[in-house]
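Bench log. Compound arrived from synthesis this morning; before running ITC I wanted a structural hypothesis for how heme C sits in the protein. Inputs:
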Amino acid sequence: MTITGLKFAAAVLLAVSTGISYAGAGHQHAAETGVHNMAAMDSSGGGHMDHMNEVLQWLKHELGAKYEQPVPPATKQQMVSGQKIFTKFCVTCHGASGKGDGVAAAGFKQKPADFTDAEHSKFYSDQGRLYLIKKGSKGTPMPAWEDILKEDEILSVHAFIRSLRSPVKTINKGHTGHTH
Ligand code: HEC
């Protein structure tokens, strides 16, 4: 997987640096892993914050009122199976500790999220994240998982990554926006 990951990352880097949409590279990756990433379409030229705001609008639009609905606390069983799923399918990009430093991530223009960053973790709602795991994130290497993982597996892996969050120490202390 390391070699494949690096090859993929290199392909993405090349595509991005030459200004070509990397849908092709995403497709190649999809074929290699059996992931059908139809979400890898156009890559936006905007900055990190622009991109995140776009994703946020998309999630809110798609989910409507459901966006704000709470996702119940994880059960023990969800945590156990969620960790297995994470190790199997997500670590290449998201890194073993969930910090977004997986081997494949080095070449990505749009880096995977740091799941341990409590500030970042507040940016999308839990329902938003669940939906993003199902559908993938357009224009980024984040694949859609809804055809690979079952609903309860998606709930489990979401429960697991949610548990990686470090506790929020400063709540609303002048943090007006997401700035990194
Ligand atoms: C091929 C690389 C890759 C794999 C494999 C991958 N991801 Fe991602 N993921 C990304 C990238 C890149 C982003 C950033 C997307 C963006 O900025 O819109 C991301 C974003 C996310 C987000 C949004 C997080 C946030 O708060 O910004 C979640 C949730 C997520 N991934 C979960 C998963 C899960 C769960 C798995 C395994 C089932 C997985 N990812 C596998 C590359 C990957």
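What the model suggests: Helices lie at 2-17, 23-33, 48-63, 76-94, 118-121, 126-135, 151-163. The pocket of heme C is lined by residues 51, 55, 85, 89-90, 92-94, 104, 108, 110, 112-113, 120, 124, 129, 132-133, 137, 140-143, 145, 157, 161 (CB under 6 Å).
ITC booked for Thursday regardless.
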